[in-house]
Specification:
CATH superfamily: Urease accessory protein UreF
Number of domains: 1
Mean pLDDT: 94
Shape: globular
Number of strands: 0
Oligomer: single chain
CATH topology: Urease accessory protein UreF
Structural class: mainly alpha
Strand content: under 5%
Order of helices and strands: HHHHHHHHHHHH
CATH class: Mainly Alpha
CATH architecture: Orthogonal Bundle
Amino acid sequence: MIEQSLLRLLQLASPALPVGAYSYSEGLEFLVHNGRVFDRGSLQHWLVQELCYGAVRLEAAVMVRSYRARGQGNWEAVCAWNRWLSAARETEELRSQSWQMGRSLLRLLVDLQPETAGGLPARLQEEGCNFAIAFGMVAADWQINLREAVLGYLHSWSTNLINAGIKLIPLGQTAGQQLLLELNPVLEQMTQEVLNIQDEDLGTCGWGLALASMAHETQYSRLFRS
């Protein structure tokens, strides 16, 4: 069971997961264009700040709540947290990204395990399912350990943005791998914090991301999806 859970976590957090994460830069493309992120050090600073204070920390915390609610069969709680996270999105671009990736992951779950996905509430798909919500549900269905699911979620997010930075700055592949290695202690620390955060403490300081995301939507030349 331990090996099976590990394999499923690797599949869920893999860059090969067909949810389109590779097509988004989450404002990073504008930051590179504007000269705010220009080398490995500035990219590392941005990623650490986002992990510690930004939207991905909030997403991971809501993912934990989705995981627990799905494990209890509490669809009302799953839907409520999905609406909460949608309302917390600061830009249309970020919300559309989250809904598109969540929809793709739910569709994949239906294709892979139709017997498991049969109980999904219709309103969860009609309202737009956030990726963090879908990730938590799948992790619970696949019996992945919660702590490992959070670590996998944060690691997958970091890998995606590092790959974006490699293309945009540009950076070498070795520099990207070194940066990912240096982020390991932060990922471990934030995993523990996310698991312990209380509902009343849920929040984010993401004005920089919001501004970058809004500017990216109208950026003249783009590699990444808006």
